[in-house]
């Protein structure tokens, strides 16, 4: 691999995930201006947030931004690819992955936004100099690949961490596979036949888990006059409750209609692309929202399978595919 560090990065709308040989990075896709703390507890001094000085501004990212920034930025549309926010998220994540030497980066874009891949490459490939706290960081993305979001899930199943084919999953290389990847802002549909990406059977819709979280935000505000940002709503949905005056209150029942509507929309799009699915040997369901939609989708596609650890599957697949490509390119 010519001394390069291979990293797979899923710079999602909800979370940023980066996987390397010895590193796994995951944090909320939130940035905000860094402010100096007026008080720092001695008990927490070793875990103080890192401020990133990128360009002319100083940023907190992830949980640090959620907790410490007076304003928080979360872009949920296609314009993010050209935004300062995306560059900050990407560089912070790559820094936290602790690469040794130049980086071979593999990442993805939603199928509907895949035409932006050259723009994304121009933003991230090359040399970057910034500060992380008091540390001067010199980071070079020497090579970069952008693939359709969702394809990483297939690579995560078909390849091992060395980038070699998994003997137990070789069937995926010989079959007709449909994949549904339910993310924060888009749901992606990918069709692959004998490893060949099939454009006519692939696509994206702008409906995903953010609609469910927006419903939860409204319901919590109406019931308890409690304002949640998007990531607080996501945490409440995953834990199943919100705390009001110290008491937990269940919330999952509040989003059941929104989940049902999303499941119906995703099912309709999958049927538009694949019919009733009888020509597909396998249908895979992944992404952070996959488990929520499985009951409805299974009624439409009885052979659907939920990918375990689906939220990290794209990043892991990007890394494994990067290992395969880097070894092949020498």
Short description:
With 330 residues, this protein is α+β, with helices and mostly antiparallel strands. The protein contains 9 helices and 17 strands.
Task: Tag the structure with descriptive keywords.
single chain; 330 residues; alpha+beta; Nucleotidyltransferase, domain 5; 6-stranded mixed sheet; 9 helices; globular
The CATH homologous superfamily of the domain at 5-35 and 49-151 and 313-329 is named: ATPase, nucleotide binding domain
Secondary-structure class: alpha+beta
Largest sheet: 9 strands, mixed
**What form results from the Cα inertia axes?**
globular
Percentage beta strand = 25-35%
Low-confidence stretches: none
Give the helix proportion (percent range): 25-40%
Q: Kindly report the average pLDDT value.
A: 92
Distinct helical segment count: 9
**CATH topology of the domain at 5-35 and 49-151 and 313-329, what is it called?**
Nucleotidyltransferase, domain 5
Radius of gyration: 20 Å
What is the count of β-strands?
17
| CATH level-1 class of the domain at 5-35 and 49-151 and 313-329 | Alpha Beta
Q: What is the N-to-C order of secondary-structure elements (H for helix, E for strand)?
A: EEEEEEHHEHEEHEEEEHHEEHEHEH
Instruction: For the record, give the distance between the C-alpha atoms at the N and C termini, rounded to a whole number.
Output: 5 Å
Strand order of the largest sheet: 3-2-1-7-9-8-5-6-4
Description:
The protein has 330 residues and is α+β, with helices and mostly antiparallel strands. It has a domain at 5-35 and 49-151 and 313-329: Nucleotidyltransferase, domain 5 (2-Layer Sandwich). The chain has 9 helices and 17 strands. It has helices at residues 63-68, 84-96, 117-124, 151-158, 209-224, 230-239, 256-274, 290-300, 310-329; strands at 5-11, 15-19, 24-28, 31-33, 52-54, 57-61, 103-109, 126-132, 135-148, 176-182, 187-193, 196-197, 203-205, 241-244, 247-250, 282-286, 304-306. The strands form 3 sheets. The protein has a 9-stranded mixed β-sheet with strand order 3-2-1-7-9-8-5-6-4. Strand 2 (15-19) and strand 3 form a beta hairpin. Helix 4 crosses helix 9 (310-329) and helix 5 (209-224) packs across helix 6. The longest helix is centred in the C-terminal third of the chain and has 20 residues, at 310-329. It is globular, with a radius of gyration of 20 Å. The mean pLDDT is 92.
């Amino acid at each position: 691999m010519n001394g390069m560090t291979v990293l797979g990065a899923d710079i999602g709308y909800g979370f940023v995930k980066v996987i390397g040989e010895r590193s796994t990075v995951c944090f909320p896709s939130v940035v905000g201006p860094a402010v100096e703390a007026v008080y720092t507890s001695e008990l927490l001094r070793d875990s103080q947030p890192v401020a990133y000085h990128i360009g002319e501004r100083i940023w907190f990212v992830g949980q640090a931004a959620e907790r410490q920034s007076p304003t928080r930025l979360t872009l949920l549309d296609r314009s993010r690819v050209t935004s300062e926010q995306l560059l900050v998220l990407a560089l912070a994540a790559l820094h936290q992955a602790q690469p040794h030497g130049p980086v071979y980066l593999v990442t993805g874009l939603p199928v509907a936004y895949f035409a932006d891949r050259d723009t994304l490459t121009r933003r991230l490939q090359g040399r970057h100099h910034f500060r992380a706290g008091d540390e001067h960081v010199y980071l070079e993305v020497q090579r970069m690949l952008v693939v359709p979001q969702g394809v990483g899930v297939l690579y995560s199943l078909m390849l091992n961490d060395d980038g070699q084919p998994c003997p137990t999953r070789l069937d995926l290389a010989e079959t007709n596979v449909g994949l549904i990847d339910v993310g924060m802002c888009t749901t992606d549909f990918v069709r692959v036949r004998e490893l060949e990406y099939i454009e006519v059977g692939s696509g994206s819709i702008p409906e995903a888990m953010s609609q469910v979280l927006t419903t939860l935000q409204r319901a919590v505000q109406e019931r308890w006059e409690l304002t949640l940002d998007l990531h607080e709503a996501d945490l409440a949905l995953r834990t199943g409750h919100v705390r009001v005056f110290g008491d937990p209150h269940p919330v999952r029942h509040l989003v059941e209609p929104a989940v049902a509507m999303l499941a119906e929309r995703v099912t309709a799009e999958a049927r538009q692309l694949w019919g009733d699915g009888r020509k597909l040997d396998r249908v895979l369901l992944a992404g952070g929202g996959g488990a929520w939609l499985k009951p409805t989708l299974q009624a439409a596609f009885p052979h659907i399978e939920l990918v375990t650890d689906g939220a990290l599957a794209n990043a892991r697949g990007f890394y494994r595919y990067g290992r395969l490509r880097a070894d092949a390119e020498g």
